[in-house]
Amino acid sequence: MALVTLRSNTILRRTTKLAKHFSSTSCPEDGPYKTVVMKTAVPGPVSQEMMAEMVGFNTSLGSVPFFVDYEKSQGNYMLDADGNVFLDAFSQISSLPLGYNHAALTKAVHSSKVTNYLVNRPALAIMPPIDTKQLLERTLLRVMPKGMDCVQTMMCGSCSVENAFKAAMIKYRADQRGEYLPTEIELDTCMRSEEPGTPDLTILSFKTAFHGRTFGSLSATRSKGIHRVDIPLLDWPAADFPMLKYPLHENEAENREIENRALDTVREQIKMYNERGRHVAAAIVEPIQAEGGDNYATPYFFRELQKILKEYNVAFIVDEVQTGGGATGKFWAHEHWDLPEAPDMVTFAKKMLIGGFFYQQEFLPKQAYRIFNTWMGDPARNALLESVLDTVENDKLIERTQSAGRVLMNGLVEAQNKYPGLISNARGLGTFLAVSCPSPERRDEFVTLLRESGLSMSGCGTDSIRFRPALIFNESHSKLLLEILDSTLSKVVH
Amino acid sequence: MALVTLRSNTILRRTTKLAKHFSSTSCPEDGPYKTVVMKTAVPGPVSQEMMAEMVGFNTSLGSVPFFVDYEKSQGNYMLDADGNVFLDAFSQISSLPLGYNHAALTKAVHSSKVTNYLVNRPALAIMPPIDTKQLLERTLLRVMPKGMDCVQTMMCGSCSVENAFKAAMIKYRADQRGEYLPTEIELDTCMRSEEPGTPDLTILSFKTAFHGRTFGSLSATRSKGIHRVDIPLLDWPAADFPMLKYPLHENEAENREIENRALDTVREQIKMYNERGRHVAAAIVEPIQAEGGDNYATPYFFRELQKILKEYNVAFIVDEVQTGGGATGKFWAHEHWDLPEAPDMVTFAKKMLIGGFFYQQEFLPKQAYRIFNTWMGDPARNALLESVLDTVENDKLIERTQSAGRVLMNGLVEAQNKYPGLISNARGLGTFLAVSCPSPERRDEFVTLLRESGLSMSGCGTDSIRFRPALIFNESHSKLLLEILDSTLSKVVH
Predict the structure, then answer these.
(1) What is the ipTM of this complex?
(2) The whole model's pTM is what?
């Protein structure tokens, strides 16, 4: 650790100068900013002072690299408290669709509709606003995945996942008992957490998956020990996620075998849990395992997975919290799969500004108060989503993401060829891209060096680096990112 | 049900005329509205049409009595889609601190700070804004309960409770193993939900408690079967909540015995679970069981509870999601208890506009990413809270709540004396008040009749009616509420 810090500081002084040589970007959304400008070490003295002031005052400062000046940030450029200008290829854990201070959002915030929802926040499930239908039609229903019937808004990704689980379980129990309404015995026994009222239903998830950190979503999350340790969880089945070889098109035969073996574990787990009377009500999967390391599976895998789940009446939940909203080059990542039928549910949050899940009619609760809480989402954020979707459409941001992604992906392939011992496995869709590093330690070192060179990105899994720019990232930003990467890698080599 | 509908319609036509006789209120926040005005049945034709349009489109329309026109609503008066003017004594499930369209909030929404946070929503735990400390000092730290050290913001009540549980468990496990960091074996075994990494720790809650509906919070919720049924839960201990006799001051001796017996069950449950190796890491309690029926315990009960929990190293979590924010006549309901020491954690949401929990320093996670998610709260709502707190202070709204509450409570006592077979057990603190009805059916009927007479309130528990006005409710609103209640009860009698 001391060594890394020393190296980092040495590099830092170099990058301060080098930054001047990086090319500049062209993007009206970026305002005055054209390239990265590093004035101090990271964190700089102002951020360090802020950290010191907040010690013992709030949690988890260990995860904070610096404090951000959101007023001064613009477009793809994020400014920290010390005035350093970063190219942002992480966009607040992939949650900012249009970068910083986008004019369309600033305008929307001041609309009477958004103001009204902010000042008079409704309890949506009991006192919905008169324009509920219109609001949903202009926002979530406009991008509802093909084949889905309904949408339920929620507050964040975790509670979207939790409530999708609940909706799947309510339907599964209704199927089991042959009628929707619970019996008196069930209503009584559930108060003591006893069967049949509290059934031992399970949710199947995949190894290295991430679905959230509340108790239900965490029971399906298997990304890292530190995420799960010390917390009692529901013991639910885990199948293997196929760990494919990259590039995918050069390893098709071997990857097909890896995927088939993973699919076998899905079947085995469902059979085993069902036989034990611990029936699998739903399976949840990310189109790309993000937090777990940017792990990909092919469309074949997901189509076969759907077949298996149908066979066992297991609801198919696609968790698009991180992949949804356009970054993969399609609005929903599962559109890349060409499924014969839609999945049963699709969860979302992050770039959608609010959480929630789309679902098939058969998962609609037939009794009030079963999927319920006070706020049930946030219509102010939902109203802002209208401006996001208008901008994505008008400015052709999905297309922009596709072309920016092509440039970035090609450059990552070139970089891994140029620096074979340092990065590998360039992979991804759209601008949703990643590379692997030789070891976890090397990865952590690269993350630090890249940040000190003015690139904001993040690690994922044990040894990968992920890029998650906003949808306004264009080809010139991809080129700048690649220059910073090349500069950093060349210094590590020499 | 058909009978109730028939009666209700009959009554409705009467109340439309009667409403004219209700006295008028005086409150600058209410704008043009002075009393209730009922123009149609509830739901009126416009609301009914909106419901029909949304069938099969979204969940749970069964919980929707009507659609609300939030732009036209003002102060304590809520307008529905048909132009009916209700006196609002429910305030969006107790979550609107200042009623509708309060000038202070409208102004705050347009401030550059709120705009900035809405347009550039930060991932707070990795990229905090430069004014994080100042924002917290002006809002949550300003009302931090006496004796607490830290605050963690969250998105809603449920995830606040879930993360308070996690913080308690992380600390409990650290105490058990004698050091903070988990071992390699723990980090490994937790990936398979096995001990020691996945410990079988438990949370003690009380019968008829409500703490939320996500898997962790639902495991501690014991309000009604329909809230828990069909969902697999963690099997956690439940103690008796004392079911006291009202009025409390006339039943002190008997209530003391009831509370002592309930406290015995706390001790028994902790001992039993600890002996089984299923250690109790925390206990959570509402100062007033709200959803479960507005059940009260005395300060004695909570002081004794704290002693027992200390004896067993069980963290004491006070769930102030519904009681916090001033409605009980103190900002935090647990301030009524005069505890010798602060509780270990206090959860909040609703009237605070965002969720979160206050906690003692010893529960501060010492490792990053252990209490973590993407958004970690909502600084835009937090910034709006500043205006709420300013208004509460400047307009002396806690004092207003005390005086409005006195008038309302006295009136409820008079009403229960006048209509002994119809309502009873008038109880509460501030304007956080409730009455009991002779049966669940009678309660549901009263709720319908009161709503049709222009009063928005809600049932709770099996047979109670609760009042949850905003903090701008004053004595004249209490009088109007009492007139509507008297008019409704007198019609039921005759």
Answers:
(1) 0.95
(2) 0.95
